[in-house]
Design a protein that fits this description.
With about 500 residues, this protein is α+β, with helices and mostly antiparallel strands. The protein has helices at about 10-25, 50-55, 60-65, 100-115, 165-170, 240-250, 295-315, 320-350, 355-370, 370-380, 435-445, 480-490, 495-499; strands at about 5-10, 30, 45, 70, 70-75, 80-85, 95-100, 120, 125-130, 135-140, 145-155, 175-190, 200-205, 205-215, 220-225, 255-270, 275, 280, 285-290, 430, 460-465, 470-475. Bound molecules: flavin-adenine dinucleotide. Flavin-adenine dinucleotide binds near residues 43, 262 and 291.
Length: about 500
């Protein structure tokens, strides 16, 4: 067997998956049909949860150093500020949105992957594959036309919106194409007298317009432009972008020096299954989001983080690998459904055209965004720290009374503390006070657990946290049995049984 895992596609999802697998010592190959990395900025936002996961991979700091931090989002309607969502209240070591063009994100991820001795095999295209129930046999057309047959235990299709892997396996697919056209323009902007670390969205009677700062003097403009006959909207001219700014934005803005101009139509999709046998889908291959919601790339990277530790752990044989891998679909698909639905509703609100409905929206929006809990909830949703795996088969029971974080929720990372899941092996962490029972538990499952306890953030409870930083199970202090039951469900073998 040439490798344990073949990753198809070197976009953000594929690079993250390959780098995480390599970090955990899994033999991985990654192929990319294009000879060169894409140069377009595409995804711009890296949200707090993604940065936390990148910290866990050991490279969050590099992203923060390269990006531009944005600390608030403003919504303006009828020339009035109707809401301001302050990201600095996000309960994360990264209380901001980080603006970094996708090409730079990919370059950082690829350099990280290379640091484990794994190179992206460029100009290598997956032609077809066969899953025989035990291994996946793939035929790859390499640069120069040579064909190679590769046998791996698993394959991850990170091959984007037009995924060959998805289409070959006929994963059920209900793509919805929106009726609105959108323009996107990365430009220099003069006359914009606004803090460079804030976003501005304009709910104008003619449609939606947003201005996102990318870097000093450079901004991304996004606007919906109504319906057209064409399925593929044309690239807008700079003049068309200027006209949209004049109509819907603040007065006297001048756009110049276009870096990237694009037209797009929103497509939304979530396939009916993320796994079939040894083949998995991640990123845009599995789900498509409205780019205006700025979640798609982040979601694809989260898929990769979720799947990589499960594959790495499954390979060790220390627990029931099959159950772990099954939980990938059970966890990631509902999360994508949730995010696609939220962005869809927000887009519908921002682009509504009926004047009476617009007035009602502006009034209600102003009222809701005047409430601090609603603003905090909006920031937690956007930053993806609120996303949780509450109905996953891989979490323990929740009696609704646990403080800090309940099973399926992310354990809030503490700045300066080594993140759970960092290092060369995927290990669970126990947040509890030291006593005979907790020490014994660490010894019983030494293969699966970090060797040291971590301090519990509240004296009443103990938390067992998964290698991806999500809470596996919570027990009242003194009740260690809940964790034994959890590991039993995971098919984990006690140390004595492994000897
Ligand atoms: C205008 C725009 C703005 C966006 N803004 C944001 C944002 O702010 N935040 C955000 O989170 N998301 C955003 N997105 C979405 C984001 O760009 C995508 O979600 C992201 O690129 C998906 O990553 P991926 O790795 O799944 O797929 P891709 O980036 O599409 O990568 C797939 C790769 O697979 C390769 N491939 C395909 N077929 C094969 C094959 N048979 N063999 C080998 N290789 C193959 C392709 O060449 C490609 O390189 C935006 C998208 C657009 C278009």
């Amino acid at each position: 067997m040439g490798a344990d895992v073949l990753v198809v596609g070197a976009g953000p999802a594929g690079l993250t998956a390959a780098a995480e697998l390599a970090r955990y010592g899994v033999a991985v190959r990654i192929i990319e049909k294009n000879r060169q990395r894409g140069a377009h900025s595409r995804a711009l936002f890296l949200w707090s949860r993604t940065l936390e996961l990148l910290d866990r991979a050991g490279i969050g700091g590099q992203f923060v150093a390269a990006g531009h931090q944005v600390r608030a989002a403003n919504i303006i309607a009828e020339q009035k500020l109707i809401g301001r969502i302050d990201f600095s209240n996000i309960a994360s070591p990264h209380p901001y949105a980080l603006m970094l063009p996708q090409a730079q994100t990919e370059a950082l991820l690829e350099a990280h992957l290379n640091s484990f001795g794994v190179q992206v095999e460029r100009g290598a295209k997956l032609d077809f594959f066969l899953d025989d129930g035990g291994t996946v046999k793939s035929v790859i057309v390499c640069a120069g036309g040579k064909r190679e047959t590769l046998e791996t235990r698993w394959m991850i299709g990170c091959d984007g919106a037009r995924s060959t892997v998805r289409d070959e396996l006929e994963f059920s697919d209900q793509t919805q194409t929106g009726s609105h056209d959108w323009v996107l323009a990365d430009v220099a902007l003069s006359g914009f007298d606004a803090p460079a670390d804030e976003l501005f969205s304009y709910w104008h009677e003619d449609g939606f317009l947003a201005i996102f700062p990318i870097a000093e003097g450079k901004y991304r403009i996004i606007a919906d432009t109504g319906t057209s006959e064409s399925a593929n909207p044309a690239e807008p001219s700079l003049l068309a972008v200027q006209n949209l700014l004049d109509e819907r934005g603040p007065a006297r803005l001048v756009a110049s020096e276009p870096i990237w101009l694009a037209g797009f139509r929103v497509r939304e999709r979530n396939v009916g299954q993320y796994r079939r046998g040894g083949v998995f889908l991640a990123g845009d291959a599995a789900h498509l989001h409205n780019p205006a919601g700025a979640q798609g790339m982040n979601m694809g990277m989260h898929d990769a983080f979720d799947l990589a530790w499960k594959m790495a752990l499954a390979l060790t044989g220390a627990c029931d690998g099959e159950a772990l891998l099954e939980s990938y679909d059970a966890e990631r698909r509902p999360v994508a459904d949730h995010v696609i639905g939220n962005v869809h509703r927000l887009t519908a609100l921002s682009t509504m055209k009926n004047a009476a409905a617009q007035r009602a929206r502006n009034l209600l929006g102003g009222f809701l965004l005047g409430l601090a809990p609603a603003r905090r909830a909006a920031a937690a949703e956007a930053s993806e720290i609120a996303l949780a795996y509450r109905n996953s088969p891989m979490i323990g029971p929740d009696d609704g009374s646990f403080p800090i974080a309940t099973p399926g929720e992310r354990m809030p990372p503490v700045k300066g503390q080594v993140p759970v899941g960092a290092g060369e092996r995927p290990r669970f962490a126990l947040f509890a006070e030291a006593n005979e029972a907790t020490t014994r538990f660490l010894q019983d499952f030494a293969e699966l657990l970090e060797p040291e306890l971590r301090p519990a953030p509240a004296a009443s409870c103990m938390w067992l946290v998964r290698p991806d930083g999500y809470v596996a199970a919570v027990g009242l202090t003194g009740d260690i049995r809940v964790f034994y039951r959890y590991f039993e469900k995971l098919g984990a073998k006690e140390e004595a049984a492994l000897l």
